[in-house]
């Protein structure tokens, strides 16, 4: 409860403060992980690549946290039925994915924007057919989708904004293939006098790399996902020994001003 005689300007600043919905400490322990994140994709274990996501509160063989770092590990597997998600690829790996419990929904009132950020170490050497990502996707239908980090077996990362299924803004930035950590950030905000679209600023290592207009993102709830998919859009065959993808200091901040 507020004290009775706080100055009006202080009350406004308290009420309108930005809110950290997922703190950078969420990978410090399994307890914190499970406070802010759920295992697998929001819709289950399968998606559009060659990896089936595996993990829960008692199985951390492919989804683990330690010392503030999330590690997703893909390992080869045989004898699995195909993916249950279109285009129904063969499953050649078990791997890991998590999604934030907090949905991203910019409605112009209690959320005029979101800042989504983190540091990532990704398998990106040319020819390594891995498909890790750090991305937002629609809760209801599709699109919207915003790929804050997407790697496809090259020394690059993609910033993608899907306005429709065929209209996509893409900015590609270079990414070292030495498994060092680098930061990515997306700042989504309302556009004045526009209740349909958002703007998205994409940053790598705190340098603004692109500004996209996100058509029809306003008021559309989205999931935040960290996953290590395999093959698929990155090509085939995937690495014989699997792959590892790491994230740390992932933070989601709801912007109120």
TrEMBL record:
Identify the stretch annotated as signal peptide in this record: 1-17
State the Gene Ontology terms under molecular function: hydrolase activity, hydrolyzing O-glycosyl compounds
Question: What protein does this entry describe?
Answer: Glycoside hydrolase family 16 protein
One of the protein's GO biological processes: carbohydrate metabolic process
Annotated keywords: Hydrolase, Signal
- Which PROSITE patterns does this UniProt record tie to the protein? GH16_2 (PS51762)
Task: Give the organism the record lists.
Answer: Serpula lacrymans var. lacrymans (strain S7.3)
> Where does the GH16 domain lie?
15-257
């Amino acid at each position: 409860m507020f004290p009775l005689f706080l100055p009006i300007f202080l009350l406004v600043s308290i009420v309108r403060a930005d809110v950290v919905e997922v703190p950078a400490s969420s990978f410090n322990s399994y307890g914190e992980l499970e406070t802010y994140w759920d295992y697998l994709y929001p819709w289950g274990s399968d998606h559009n690549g060659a990896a089936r996501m595996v993990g829960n509160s008692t199985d951390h063989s492919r989804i683990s946290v330690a010392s503030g770092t999330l590690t997703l590990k893909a390992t080869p597997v045989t004898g699995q039925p195909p993916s249950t998600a279109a285009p129904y690829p063969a499953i050649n790996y078990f791997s890991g994915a998590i999604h934030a419990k907090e949905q991203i929904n910019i409605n112009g009132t209690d959320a005029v924007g979101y800042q989504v950020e983190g540091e990532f170490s990704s398998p990106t050497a040319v020819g390594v057919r891995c498909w890790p990502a750090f991305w937002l996707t629609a809760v209801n239908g599709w699109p919207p989708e915003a790929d804050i980090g997407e790697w496809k077996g090259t020394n690059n990362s993609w910033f993608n904004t899907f306005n429709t299924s065929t209209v996509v803004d893409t900015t590609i930035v270079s990414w070292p293939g030495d498994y060092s950590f680098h930061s990515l950030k997306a700042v989504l905000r309302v556009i004045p006098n526009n209740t349909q679209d958002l703007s998205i600023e994409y940053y790598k290592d705190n340098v603004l790399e692109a500004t996209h207009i996100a058509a029809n993102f306003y008021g559309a709830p989205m999931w935040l996902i960290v996953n290590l998919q395999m093959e698929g859009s990155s090509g085939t065959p995937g690495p014989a020994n699997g792959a590892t993808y790491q994230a740390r200091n992932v933070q989601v901040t709801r912007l109120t001003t």
